[in-house]
Amino acid sequence: MEKVRVRFAPSPTGYLHIGGARTALFNYFFAKRYGGKFILRIEDTDRERLKEDSVSQIISSLKWLGIEWDEGPEIGGEFGPYFQSERLELYRKEAQRLVDEGKAYYCFCTEEEIAKEREEQKALKVPYRYSGRCSTLSKEEVEENIKMGKPYVIRIRIPREGNTVVEDLIRGTVNFDNSQLDDYIIIKSNNMPTYNFACVVDDHFMKISHVIRAEEHLSNTPKQVLMYEALGYEIPKFAHISMILAPDRSKLSKRHGATSVEEFKEQGYLKEAIVNYLTLLGWAPGGDEEIFSVEDTVKKFSLDNVSKTAAIYDVNKLSWINGHYLRNLDLDYITREAVPFFIKKGLVSEDEVENKYDYIKRVVSAVREKVKLLSEVADASEYFFKDIDEYDPKGVEKRFKKDNVIELLTKGKQALEKASDFSVEGVEKAYRDLIDELGIKGGDIIHPTRLALSGRTVGPGLFDIISILGKEECLRRMDKAIAFINNL
RNA sequence: GGCCCCAUGGUCAAGCGGUUAAGACGUCGCCCUCUCACGGCGAAAACAGGAGUUCGAGUCUCCUUGGGGCUGCCA
User: Fold this and answer.
1) So what's the pLDDT on residue A322?
2) Chain CA centroid to CA A446, Å
């Protein structure tokens, strides 16, 4: 294969959403797989839709996911600049070349004139296409119009007949009738290029070998192919990957809940899980394997087994994958990732983190087995950092007999008091001995104790809780619980 | 409306002319168990419909239906 150069070219109109992230990921995988370069280019030619901070948001999301670019913003590169707004001269120059070669022309039609054309064609029930009335203007007429200061756009001449073929690596040969196209605008009246023009010029000058992008661009591709031909550029390979749809099969939008990488991060998803899930959505290596690292994927990635079908994303599976990584990734890493959620919940302050790190780590170690999200780790850890405000009387009454519970808790407390070894094994032995002595089932005393210590009926193994909390705190909470039940 | 893409369980997804149509998530049941998870075992659950081609079709062709995209001085 020739030298692989691919790019991800987002438009800074909002956050990086998961569809964009997947497109970026597939480009990245492809580049790595074939030892090529991955380029990031910002397509900021529409000033009206441009959103403040959007570029930095997209950049930070990509970095967070671990998608690093070889050329692009911040690091530059041989073929920069990598913001389209900084490449205006190039577009202007290439557009002028097309005009000089008779392949493009100035158009002075006003918005009203275009609107009128549109209406007329609508009345005739034919799809709108620009009539081409300015295409026959003489050089003198053009010059005079310009001299008069008339606003204009530049349009490319599209052949009225024939057809244009797009060779797509995923979809095969796709045929388009040129009659469906019209002389579309390549330079707007504000001197900015349009997408189908800037994209082609940049992909050429940035020496892009494979254009891997979302399927929504497939219909734009014949226009671009014609543009490559007009400009005399070599045509790159195309691959249009399917889109990600919302659960109701419509295009993903805000009303479908979290759709941006940033939101998923805030909800407590790990980047490893997001990357893994997005990879799985639309690409299958063939075997049964579902959990794989970026390194695994890079080794096997190929456009041949990228799915053609649009995929509906399923938060359930994402969460399942997240739970897997939460449980299996290095404990220190998970702890560090969880800390912001502890802080956000007010369980620890930023200053305390260092001193309490070992304690936090123990809590995370116990709790992560039970939950799927980092935010849930924090939720499930609350009582390790805060006293129990009050027990839920209904919960207590429903589950336990009052007198019996008080007796058991008192015995349990005494056993803990006597225990000299407060390791998990140590406290378990103390409790197991007591259980044997009383001749009861373990659960009979374990459940009330958990409730006394955590205020909850679900959580980590009791002996983990006891060991982490420590003797002093355990005894205090046992007393508190006993007093509470006594007052019922 | 026109053009283009797509179509295997609820979701993702193996399959690339001959299979009892994998697997995963989710759901349900059982086991493990101090709860909840994890893990293990098992179950229900799919080739959108119709014509062809073929000895034989989920796999190839066509039509219909359904979904999606494009049809912008958005990208």
Assistant:
1) 98
2) 42
Closest CA-bearing residue to C1' of B24: A290
Query: CA of A313 vs C1' of B40, distance in Å?
Result: 29
Q: How many CB atoms lie within 10 A of CB A55?
A: 16
Q: One-letter amino acid identity for A33?
A: R
In whole angstroms, B17 C1' to A99 CA is 54
CA distance A192 to A198: 9
Instruction: List the strands of the sheet with A153-156, edge to edge.
Output: A104-107, A153-156, A185-187
Which residue positions in chain A have pLDDT lower than 70? 1-2, 395, 397-399
d(CA A362, CA A449): 20
Provide the 10 A C-beta neighbour count for residue A389.
Answer: 7
For A153, the enclosing helix (H) or strand (E) is strand A153-156
Beta-carbon contacts of residue A125 (< 8 Å; ≥ 6 apart)? none
Helix ranges (H only) for A150-236 are 195-205, 221-231
A11 close to A46: Cβ distance less than 8 angstroms: yes
Q: Contact, A106 vs A152, CB < 8 A?
A: yes
Q: Which nucleotide is nearest to A222 (CA to C1')?
A: B4
Across-strand partners of A156?
Answer: A104
| 3-class DSSP assignment, residue A105 | strand
Q: Which pLDDT value is given to residue A1?
A: 56
| Dihedral class, residue A35 (left if φ above 0, else alpha if ψ from -120 to 50, else beta) | left
pLDDT in tens, A86-121: 999 999 999 999 999 999 999 999 988 898 888 888
**A63: Cβ contacts below 8 Å, ≥ 6 apart:** none
**Does the annotation count A480 as an active-site position?**
no
As given in the structure block, the two tokens for residue A121 are 């064609």
CA A359 from centre of chain: 32
Separation between the CA of A229 and the C1’ of B72 (whole angstroms): 23
pTM of the model: 0.94
> How far apart are the C-alpha atoms of A71 and A78, rounded to whole Å?
8
Tokens linked to A229: 């031909």
DSSP label at residue A86: G
**CA pair distance A435, A27, nearest whole angstrom:** 60
Catalytic residue selected from A3, A93, A122, A254: A254
- Among all protein residues, pick the one whose CA is nearest to the C1' atom of B66: A249
Phi/psi of residue A425, each to 5°? -65, -40
